[in-house]
Specification:
Chain lengths: 358, 269
């Protein structure tokens, strides 16, 4: 288990502020956040590459804050792979083994095994500069795994790969993680990767932890408007609670009243977050139920997407809906007036004091 | 095909403008080389003159000693500067660049005041029997002082080009700080180290004013040439100059050729 306690650190323009986080053993933890939030710095601090100004890092309940990187048993793979350009593929993979004073026989055995595992045998004597991005990444992963780390830190490792290779590498890493019981901490921008791999997710903004939890919690129940925006929730509105009672509230947003499940007194300012997928087009003649919000709008833009159609609606409260492709074509036309229904349970409410309510 | 044979107009104009520098250097070489090659017996006699050989040997030995010192002390300094973000870095860099901005006589005076027998460093060392005035060590010190910015700045740029992430990764793979420097930063900077050493050596062996302030004797080649110019005229000094030019050209050409492919793998990254 890795425990980060009140960590503060400044390195150049990046910084971490009073960060506390627990990463459970044998999990694949994701650190996500906008560029410049300090995500890579967290990985480097865990690896021991920077001395914390405040706070401490514990690995298996032992404070490692004073321990140098080479003694931590943590491997790090950067986004640019950081392969040693003056060493061949085999020399790159053997580097850590050489530092660990392994005999040449042991080194050869481990290197050959990893070259085989990562399909790198034919690149053995090539220099990194002559390899493709995907091949370089396999070398970087093999080099990191050669030293048998307890913890593997990955800094956006799959970001620069094309989708097919990314998928292959993710599958390979999942397999290796299962076999070795590895704990992985990965910095990522990709929501898809987080959903596919993450056991736990931490959102970092301006060097601070703003939310930690499962993917569902982060992406469906964001704790702050900033997390909601980062989670790419399509509809985020500021409004004021106009009515409250029986576990339900009505929130006024530019004259439109949204219903949501929450207990917040009237008069309080709140932020509403509604995923585009939770908006439905009402069939003609259907009347909204007591737990639904009904909004009328003009379709201003239609964009086909992989799993649906993105419809932008103008009006006093502009909405973005992600609709299934099965929606009848005649009801989806630019310039057409439509009625949208939103279930109260699908409306996430973030009060101005940022405490969770749903 | 025909178009590709024609020079790019912009490159052509650039050559025309820059060619002035090459032309002046060529002419300067010519005015020395032509009369010397026309009188080979005189040139051979000067080249075999014991004082000339002694002076050339002294100059090159002192130049190599200065470069050796810079390799040992200048390399760590260049590395430290490249990995430091503190505001003290610019203070250190300004001090280091000082010899570039100063007249060489001023640099020589500074070295003299520091290393003379009553100087801040030279005083205590004189009591221990180590002297700099009119001594080989004095020549080396003056050479180090004037050539250090050439070496340190070149090598610092080299280290700055080595991504710090490479060293970070090496550390996480079990390398100590020194091992990361030794196996990652140093080999990736080798081309700059060679280049810096060559520049510094060239600067050191060509130094006159700073050297004669602390050690007119034993005579380095520039001092001998000046002495021959004052006493024997152009013909005497021109032969020594020509020998010096030939030797330096051979050294530079050989080392540049030898180190051309050094560190080429880092360009692929």
């Amino acid at each position: 288990m890795i425990t980060i306690e009140h960590l503060s650190l400044d390195v150049g323009p990046a910084g971490i502020r009073d960060l506390s986080l627990v990463i459970k053993p044998k999990t694949w933890a994701f650190i996500i956040g906008p560029s410049g939030a300090g995500k890579t710095l967290i990985l480097e601090a865990i690896a021991g590459l920077h001395t914390p100004e405040k706070g401490r890092i514990l690995i298996r309940n032992t404070d490692v804050s004073g321990l140098s990187p080479e003694k931590r048993g943590i491997a790090l793979v950067y986004q640019d792979y950081s392969l040693f350009p003056h060493m061949t593929v085999a020399e790159n993979i053997a580097f850590g083994l050489k530092q660990g004073n392994k005999s040449s026989e042991e080194r050869e055995e481990i290197v050959s095994d990893l070259l085989n595992r990562f399909r790198l045998l034919r690149f053995r004597d090539r220099y990194p500069g002559t390899l493709s991005g995907g091949e370089q990444q396999r070398v970087a992963l093999a080099r990191a795994l050669a030293v048998q780390p307890e913890l593997l830190l990955l800094d956006e490792p799959f970001a620069a790969l094309d989708p097919q290779i990314r998928e292959e590498h993710i599958l390979l890493m999942q397999q290796i993680r299962r076999e070795r019981g590895l704990t992985i901490v990965q910095v990522s921008h990709s929501r898809e990767e987080a959903f596919a791999l993450a056991d736990q997710v931490a959102v970092i903004m301006e060097g601070r932890l703003v939310q930690a939890g499962t993917c569902e919690e982060i992406f469906f129940q964001p704790a702050t408007p900033e997390v909601a925006r980062f989670a790419r929730i399509e509809n985020i509105f500021s409004g004021t609670v106009s009515w409250s009672g029986d576990g339900m509230i009505a929130v006024d947003v530019n004259g439109t009243s949204f219903r949501a499940l929450a207990e917040i007194p009237a008069g309080r300012p709140v932020t509403l977050c509604i995923r585009g997928r939770d908006l439905q087009i009402a069939r003609d003649g259907v009347t909204p139920g007591p737990y639904q919000t009904c909004v009328t709008g003009l379709i201003s833009e239609l964009t086909p997407m992989e799993f649906g159609i993105r419809a932008e609606m103008s009006g006093p409260c502009p909405l973005v809906a992600i609709l299934p492709r099965e929606v009848p074509a005649q009801s989806l036309q630019r310039g057409r007036m439509v009625t949208i229904l939103i279930d109260a349970a699908a409306v996430r409410v973030i009060p101005s004091d940022l405490k969770e309510t749903v | 095909m025909i178009r590709s044979c024609l020079p790019n107009p912009f490159i052509f104009v650039s050559w025309l403008l820059g060619g002035v520098i090459v032309l002046v250097s060529g002419l300067a070489l010519m005015v020395i080389a032509v009369p010397e090659l026309a009188d080979l017996p005189h040139l051979t006699a000067i080249a075999l003159d014991g004082r000339v050989i002694e002076s050339l040997s002294l100059t090159f030995a002192a130049g190599c000693s200065a470069v050796l010192f810079l390799l040992l002390c200048g390399t760590p300094l260049a590395y430290a500067l490249s990995r430091t973000t503190s505001r003290w870095r610019s203070v250190a860099e300004s001090l280091l660049d000082l010899p570039l901005a100063l007249p060489h006589t001023v640099a020589g005076l500074m070295v003299y005041l520091l290393f003379m027998s009553r100087g801040l460093i030279g005083g205590p060392l004189a009591q221990a029997g180590i002297f700099f005035e009119d001594a080989f060590l004095g020549i080396v010190m003056a050479m180090i002082f004037v050539s250090s910015p050439y070496y340190v700045n070149t090598v610092r740029e080299g280290f700055e080009r080595v991504p710090v992430h490479l060293e970070y990764v090496a550390r996480t793979l079990g390398a100590t700080e020194f091992a990361a420097f030794r196996f990652i930063a140093l080999p990736l900077c080798s081309r700059h180290i060679w280049s810096g050493a060559l520049l510094a050596w060239g600067r050191a062996v060509g130094e006159f004013a700073a050297v004669i302030m602390i050690a007119y004797f034993p005579e380095v080649i520039s001092a001998l040439m000046y002495q021959r110019f004052s006493t024997g005229g152009i013909a005497e000094s021109r032969s020594i100059a020509f020998i010096m030019i030939v030797v330096c050209l051979v050294v530079f050409f050989t080392l540049r050729t030898m180190t051309r492919t050094r560190g080429e793998n880092d360009d692929h990254h």
